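Sequence, please.
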């Protein structure tokens, strides 16, 4: 059974089938979001230091923008329901619905049993990048986040400024809880600005220098009340390595914008998924 069968090429030539066709997904009203954003005013901002993380809150119906400032930098983003931290970003289902990388018009979905949009991408200055000749693209939902456990496994060292640790410290500070209590709530991320893909020959996850420039940004509409948690990755632009103090790193800026009263007439936060949870 280890030898290729006679019809091996025919088997490889079978056309793929999209697992989750999205034609029936409720579509975001991008025209409404754009109109609301046009008159919005900035109400808060948070500067995330290099090799560290910060939390921020965004009420439903407001916008938040993540920007590169000072130099090329990628970030690892967690999202939680502000009122129920167990409802958090589900990178796997987002990947299944939208693909390995997300951009304008795509949504960040929450974990089961909620499975609803948490945030919608409304602007992306790196949308021009597309997919390069290596299969790389920007803003991935395939990488998990750099973490000290994998670092210790592969390098044998104790490094405390991996994105997992950064996010843990920031969330623990928000919760007023021990880090051990906050750590299980840290989850797989949206790799903001990171340029990644899978190698064609071995299928391995790769990273390459991010095309991000100071002033580039990705912007989201908050579909529910959100607690954001963003780490400025110790890999900088991830052109060489991560989880070290070698790479040049820069801060990331988070800005929150509130639309004018009445600008979102007819819009309401999406309810949790309607499945009855009986499981047969």
């Amino acid at each position: 059974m280890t030898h290729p069968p006679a019809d091996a090429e025919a088997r490889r030539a079978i056309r793929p089938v999209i697992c989750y066709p999205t034609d029936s997904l409720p579509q975001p009203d991008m025209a409404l979001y754009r109109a609301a954003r046009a008159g919005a005013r900035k109400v808060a901002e948070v500067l995330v230091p290099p090799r560290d993380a910060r939390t921020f809150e965004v009420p439903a119906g407001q916008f938040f923008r993540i920007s590169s400032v000072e130099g090329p930098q990628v970030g690892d983003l967690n999202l939680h329901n502000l009122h129920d931290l167990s409802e958090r970003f589900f990178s796997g289902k987002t990947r299944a619905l939208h693909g390995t990388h997300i951009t304008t018009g795509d949504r960040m979905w929450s974990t089961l049993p909620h499975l609803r949009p948490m945030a919608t991408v409304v602007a992306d200055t790196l949308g021009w990048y597309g997919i390069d000749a290596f299969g790389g693209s920007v803003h991935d939902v395939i990488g998990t986040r750099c973490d000290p456990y994998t670092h210790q496994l592969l390098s044998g060292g104790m490094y405390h400024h991996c994105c997992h640790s950064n996010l843990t410290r920031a969330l623990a500070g928000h919760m007023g809880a021990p880090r051990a209590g906050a750590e299980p709530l840290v989850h797989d991320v949206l790799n903001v600005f990171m340029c990644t893909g899978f190698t064609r020959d071995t299928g391995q996850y790769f990273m390459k220098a991010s095309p991000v420039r100071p002033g580039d940004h990705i912007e989201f509409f908050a579909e529910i009340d959100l607690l954001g948690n963003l780490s400025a990755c110790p890999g900088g632009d991830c052109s060489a390595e991560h989880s070290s103090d070698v790479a040049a790193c820069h801060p990331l800026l988070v800005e929150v914008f509130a639309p004018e009263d009445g600008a979102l007439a007819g819009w309401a936060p999406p309810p949790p998924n309607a499945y009855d949870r009986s499981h047969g």
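The helical segments are 8-12, 30-38, 91-98, 148-155, 163-175, 179-182.
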